[in-house]
Amino acid sequence: MTDNRRPIVVFEQVSKAFGEKQVLRDVSFDVKAGEILCILGRSGTGKSVTLKLLIALQRPDRGKIWIDDDEITSMNASGLSRVRRKMGFLFQDAALFDDLTVYENLALPLARLTGRPRDEIDSAVTNVLKQVGLACDTQKTPAALSGGMRKRAGLARALILNPRVLLADEPSSGLDRITASEIDDLLLRQRNEKNTTILIVTHDVHGARKIGDKFAVLDKGRMIAFGTAEEVESSEHEIARRLISER
To answer: Residue 21's CB: how many other CB atoms inside 10 A?
Structure first.
């Protein structure tokens, strides 16, 4: 059956180096609307750099990157601000403001970026915190949360602006298997209920295979495999086959 969904995220022959170190070499892929792409690879192969390029925290040396209909590699600050409002980012360490409560961490971007009245902000924050299971923890600071709760709060903040594209950097890092599985379930629910396009950098093959539609495998800065789990398992590259294997 033909998949007629259009790509929402496109990497086209993207390269990035830091000094003498070539991190990405002519990497190309696309992610369709409502699709979950898991990016796999050994440490230092350019996975997290890929996410930073997508949100324009870094710029590529060559190539083009589209988010929806916007080509972002040469976009100015105001254009990037507009594009980033379509995106959410779940950082590996959750990246919450330590001196703000959970509620305040979520209300801040709404107040700054949307101009909504306070009652609408309250309602939006309450709904997202219910979604991630933190409805009773609104007045806690990040220091009072467990690792799994901090990750949930970070995910809630990433979702508060109802992004079309969600980027997640090692969402299960540092979590036990049960808590990691709960985070996976939240990501799946977000895709299924909101048709959110999700890109995940992960070392967690079990979780990736649970939620991923497609898989991109990076090695030494190059894309060595791309496709479904079954397609990557049939790759000519042994590293790709080993990385997708749960054994």
So the answer is: 9
Name the domain count of the chain. Answer: 2
Domain edge (last residue) among 162, 191, 212: 162
Strands of the chain, DSSP E: 7-18, 21-32, 36-41, 62-67, 70-71, 87-90, 165-169, 197-201, 214-219, 222-227
> Is there a single domain that holds both residue 20 and residue 139?
no
Residue 15 and residue 48 in one domain? yes
Cα–Cα distance between 131 and 84 in angstroms, integer? 22
Residue 93 lies in a domain: no
Distances (CA, A) of 103 to 35, 109, 124, 154, 234: 29, 11, 10, 12, 46
Angle, CA 157 vertex, CA 56 and CA 55 arms, to 5°: 5
Of 162, 186, 214, the residue that ends a domain is 162
Helix (H, G, I), strand (E, B) or coil at 69: coil
The mean pLDDT of the chain is 91
- Which residues span the domain enclosing 241? 1-86+164-247
pLDDT band at 43 (very low <50, low <70, confident <90, very high): confident
pTM above threshold 0.70 = yes
Burial string for 99-123 (b: 16+ CB within 10 Å, else e) reads eebbbbbbbebbeeeeeeeeeebee
Q: What pLDDT is attached to residue 1?
A: 47
Q: Are residues 74 and 174 in the same domain?
A: yes
